[in-house]
Amino acid sequence: HDALPISVEPGRFFTSYHGYWPVSSTETNEAFGSMDDLRGLVAVAHKRRLGVILDFVANHVHQDHPLYREHPGWVTPLVLPDGRKNIRLYDEHPLTTWFDTFLPSLNFKDNREIRDFMVDNAAFWLRETGADGFRHDAVKHIPEDFWRQLTARLYHEFEREGDRRIYQVGETISGYDLVARYVGPDLLSGQFDFPLYFRLHDVAGMGKGRMADLGEAMRSAEANYPAGAVMSPLLGNHDFARFLAYADGDVKDGENEKEVGFANPPRVDDPASYDKLALAFAALLTAPGAPMIYYGDEIGLTGAGDPDNRRMMLWDEISEPQGAVFEQV
């Protein structure tokens, strides 16, 4: 896409470098490769006993997507009854809010055709590629009945005969109650454990609280998530500043993480910050579940809020402290 101004101040221009502005539901991104390339990647991974999960965006499409162009009434209203634009009101109107003016949210609640379309589309990608499941975006912004319908379809089409197992991990940035709501035998396999992430970030990264608080967070996870859930602990992702940016004091509580990236991009000044990262990894990789390592954290990349937290990966020219973290991981 050409660059577009986002609706939040200061209205910076962005492109879809992140892939979350879908313009097709059946084509691969040509910058990455063809469908055959994707099939080949999955096949090679399977030969090495690795699974591949696809990032599935069901909540919205880009304004150029054929689904919106052909069915403009299949989306939630952009303007609220009080005249406000329903943009990024994630907690006030979670099931209807738009991520931006050019990203219409699909109306799952009132439209069975939308639910059927997205369920069929998810099955299409698993059928076409041989992939092993999904990382689901914006789970709390889509009604639970969609996730039940999707899970039932994937079970009956791919798992019932016992020759394939589908793993679905969701993204819900919230507390235990909301994170756990979408996990279960008829829902998702698990979700990213954001309650544990926030405690890990505070204790290991910013020195707030005690190690006992981290232990309490791990015990709370066991108590709050359904039996059999495969939760996914993490210490960083694409939505937050990098762990090292907090640990090194470049991003402070209450700061606008995105603007820090534009005004004063972090660099690691204190070698002891890598020790904090090593401690966080020790907790992450011994916690129950399927830990998620955000690319670059394993060598101690730093960065403020999106897009600064998505810097190019370093492969060869890494420092001695970065190499030490990598060896530990």
Concise overview:
The protein is 36% helix and 5% strand. It has 329 residues and is mostly helical. Helix 6 (194-206) runs antiparallel to helix 7.
What is the H/E string? EEHEHHEHEHEHHHHHH
Strand content: 5-15%
Helix content: 25-40%
Radius of gyration: 20 Å
What is the count of DSSP helices, taking H or I runs of 4+ residues?
A: 11
Spatial strand sequence of the major β-sheet:
3-4-5-6
- Please state the structural category: mainly alpha
Please mark out the parts with pLDDT under 50 across 5 or more consecutive residues, or reply none. none
Mean pLDDT: 95
The major sheet is characterized as: 4 strands, parallel
Number of strands: 6
Instruction: Give the termini distance in whole angstroms.
Output: 37 Å
Overall geometric form:
globular
Report on this model:
The chain has 329 residues and is mainly α. 36% of the residues lie in helices and 5% in strands. The chain is built from eleven helices and six strands. The chain has helices at residues 35-47, 66-70, 112-129, 144-159, 176-181, 194-206, 211-224, 243-247, 257-263, 272-284, 320-328; strands spanning 4-5, 13-14, 53-56, 133-136, 167-170, 190-191. It has a four-stranded parallel beta sheet, with helices on one face. β5, α5 and β6 (190-191) form a beta-alpha-beta unit. α3 (112-129) packs parallel to α4 and α6 (194-206) runs antiparallel to α7 (211-224). It is globular, with a radius of gyration of 20 Å.
